[in-house]
């Protein structure tokens, strides 16, 4: 009997081990990533008492709201590059709209690409990567082709022009000379339904994609939805404008840059000046300012309604319980504070962003004051999904915050904005922001500094760098631990202009028009006759004693195929 009992026990252990080994793998969690273009933390859940944002607020009540989330550069393409590649703009050397990130890191594995490589179906709708201004989509990131929507779109016949407006041409990658095109209006309130503007159509397509995904329960997905508003122009159906009494809106009292700030640090809001009802120079009238503020609020409420429709479909289809939701604004926006509009600065209103996350491990209705930045989302989402993130990302995972909103995290976040040859590297702590303006690799003592103390001066009325030198030194030490900012890499347009200029120079030097330069032709009238012979030797790649047109243009390099 004892032997039989041992036999039964051993059999039980054997089959238990067998069943564990053959158990179905854990179901992969879906990801719904929602980006909102130009959305600052102007939401009810962030404390604004005027805005109508019930769906943003309901989402925040379901998960974790980040009070101190920051972008890595307050302009669309670099900010999105940071999140999607996990690398800050100063690591890529890309601070403009037109340079594609793969020019800096051709073999980068993007965030959606990492999920695709892990067996996820990845889809993108609307604005995820920045497309326009010479920039383009990243097809390898997506399982199916990206579904595009127009950032610039008018519904009223009175607003439309024959052909393209300036901003439409820029976002369409048109070859037309932009400054010769007409300017469209900065806002519109057509009496149309939600699908009369692109975000309504985008929400319809997103719901269709979610329905399709629900029919394939064994295929995990990463769906990215990029809502277009509240990006300029402030176009939304009239009913969303009617949610607000224009008398509610006041123009900020502080209409000047911070005292002692460098003259180049503020923005001249050139983006807004591309529109027809905005002066090309000088300030806005109070009436114009209030109308723009009204437009921003109306477009936020319009997007809020589309968000509600998408989240409602997620619930109705039974997908919510197995989905991580991320709501992210790509950067903030100046609404007249310091006399500034748009983004394009290192100040708080431009760099501070909304960030909300919902996931099974997150208790509902929580908030955290921890500092996080856009580059942190890549490693965080990978860790949540059990996916290996690529090495050498700039961000760090904040998954500890999802279970404990008070968990210790980083002491500072970093962002940047360029002005000409200067790069303004910024470090933001819980209390301070230091901005260090200098050329890349220039000596530290050449830097121009800004320091803002948000405990004593939350409105950034004054640059305190000269008064609080101990704080400046402490924050500069944090910056010094970061890699030096790379200069902006040359865009295709820059390279084309250089090639064009050198082609014209070649033609002038080629006196006999034989398509090559002799040593004498090259050296003739050089401004530095002592150094010029060495340049000739360098340019003469094939060492035949003459320079071909290509050798002269490429200056000893090789043409890119």
Protein described:
This protein is an alpha/beta fold. The chain folds into three domains: 30-403, 3-Layer(aba) Sandwich (Alkaline Phosphatase, subunit A), CATH 3.40.720; 413-480, Arylsulfatase, C-terminal domain (2-Layer Sandwich), CATH 3.30.1120; 493-554, EF-hand (Recoverin, domain 1, Orthogonal Bundle), CATH 1.10.238.10. 31% of the residues lie in helices and 16% in strands. It has helices at residues 2-21, 54-62, 76-85, 89-92, 111-117, 166-171, 198-214, 238-241, 286-316, 348-351, 377-385, 399-403, 469-480, 492-509, 519-523, 532-539, 549-554, and strands spanning 30-36, 64-70, 121-126, 187-188, 221-227, 234-235, 323-329, 334-335, 341-342, 352-353, 355-358, 366-373, 413-419, 422-428, 432-438, 448-453, 516-517, 547-548. Strands 1, 2, 3, 5, 7, 10, 11 and 12 form an eight-stranded mixed β-sheet that branches. A hairpin with a 2-residue loop joins strand 13 (413-419) and strand 14. The radius of gyration is 27 Å and the shape is globular. The protein starts with a helix and ends in a 7-residue tail after the last helix.
């Amino acid at each position: 009997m004892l032997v039989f009992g041992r036999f039964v026990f051993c059999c039980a252990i054997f089959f238990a081990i067998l069943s564990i080994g053959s158990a179905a793998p854990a179901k992969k969690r879906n990801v719904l990533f929602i980006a909102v273009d130009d959305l600052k933390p102007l939401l009810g859940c962030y404390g604004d008492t005027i805005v109508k944002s019930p769906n943003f607020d309901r989402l925040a009540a379901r998960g974790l709201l980040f009070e101190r989330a920051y972008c890595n550069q307050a302009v669309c393409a670099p900010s999105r590059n940071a999140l999607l590649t996990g690398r800050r703009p100063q690591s890529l050397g890309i601070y403009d709209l037109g340079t594609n990130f793969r020019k800096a890191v051709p073999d980068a594995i993007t965030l959606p690409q990492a999920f695709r490589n892990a067996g996820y179906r990845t889809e993108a709708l609307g604005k995820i990567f920045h497309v326009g201004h010479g920039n383009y989509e990243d097809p390898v990131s997506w399982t199916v082709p990206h579904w595009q929507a127009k950032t610039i779109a008018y519904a009223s016949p009175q607003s439309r022009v024959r052909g393209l407006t300036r901003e439409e041409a820029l976002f369409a990658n048109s070859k037309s000379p932009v400054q010769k095109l007409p300017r469209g209006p900065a806002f519109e309130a057509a009496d149309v339904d939600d699908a009369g503007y692109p975000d309504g159509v985008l929400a319809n397509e997103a719901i269709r994609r979610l329905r399709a995904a629900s029919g394939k329960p064994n295929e995990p997905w990463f769906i990215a939805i990029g809502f277009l508003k509240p990006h300029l122009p402030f176009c939304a159906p009239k009913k969303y404008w009617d949610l607000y009494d224009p008398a509610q809106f006041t123009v900020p009292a502080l209409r000047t840059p911070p005292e002692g700030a460098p003259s180049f640090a503020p923005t001249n809001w050139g983006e807004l000046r591309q529109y027809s009802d905005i002066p090309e120079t000088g300030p806005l009238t109070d009436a114009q300012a209030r109308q723009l503020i009204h437009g921003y609020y109306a477009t936020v409420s319009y997007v809020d309604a589309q968000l509600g429709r998408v989240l409602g479909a997620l619930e109705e289809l039974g997908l919510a319980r197995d989905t991580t939701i991320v709501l992210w604004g790509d950067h903030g926006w100046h609404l007249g504070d310091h006399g500034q509009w748009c983004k394009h600065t290192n100040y708080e209103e431009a760099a501070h962003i909304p960030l909300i996350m919902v996931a099974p491990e997150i208790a509902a209705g929580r908030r955290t004051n921890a500092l996080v930045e856009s580059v942190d989302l890549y490693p965080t989402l990978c860790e949540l999904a059990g996916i290996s993130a690529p090495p050498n990302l700039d961000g760090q995972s904040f998954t500890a915050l999802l279970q404990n909103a008070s968990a210790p995290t980083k002491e500072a976040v970093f962002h940047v904005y360029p002005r000409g040859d200067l790069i303004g590297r910024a470090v933001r702590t819980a209390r301070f922001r230091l901005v260090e303006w200098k050329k890349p690799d220039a000596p530290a003592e050449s830097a121009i500094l800004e320091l803002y103390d948000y405990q004593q001066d939350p409105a950034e009325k004054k640059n305190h760098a000269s008064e609080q030198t101990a704080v400046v030194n402490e924050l500069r030490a944090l910056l010094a631990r970061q890699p030096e900012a790379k200069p902006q890499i040359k865009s295709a347009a820059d390279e084309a202009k250089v090639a064009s200029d050198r082609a014209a120079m070649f033609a002038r030097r080629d006196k006999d028009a034989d398509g090559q330069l002799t040593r004498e032709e090259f050296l003739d009238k050089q401004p530095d006759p002592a150094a010029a012979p060495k340049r000739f030797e360098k340019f003469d790649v094939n060492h035949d004693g003459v320079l071909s047109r290509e050798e002269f243009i490429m200056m000893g390099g090789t043409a890119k195929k």
